[in-house]
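JOB MANIFEST
job_type = single_chain_structure
chain_count = 1
residues = 171
[input]
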Amino acid sequence: MKAGTVLPDGILFRRALPGDAPCLAQLRLDFMRLVKNGGQHDEEAWRTELEELFSRDLDRGSLVCWVCAVGNRLVGASGVAFGDRAPAPVRAAPVRGAGEAGSSEALILNMYTVPEYRRRGIAGALLDRCIGEARTRGVGRLRLQPTEEGRRLYEGRGFRTLGEDMVLDLA
């Protein structure tokens, strides 16, 4: 599937823009309500911070997010963080910054599909776009922090457990 292509069932996958920051922040808050049994303390302050981070990092290119829309509603999102948004490298050898050709790692984050749209292949399609973006940028390894519910998806794409994280070697 190409980015921006509408599927027969009305599902559209596209690259997120800085203007999508409020919707991305809302999806992240929805996710946190599920995993934190009710949400975060001072959610409105966190929403403001998330919107600023998404907008800034999408604009700079240090974060690439893909979204899934049905009509005007975003029902899923995934992102890959490069540069200063990516995790510190695991290995001791010196490496260039994440996202540069031959670099070490980038971080998959904000994987979320609203519950009523799950089990339709949305998360897999979003994850595949993030993996493709990392490969295009020459990233050697992707890292993510899985939920138990997401592990099967990640294992199916070749991720393996490393401590509390999962990693996918691309090089």
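[summary]
The beta strands are 11-15, 63-70, 73-81, 105-113, 141-144, 160-162, 165-169.
The longest strand covers residues 73-81.
exit_status = 0
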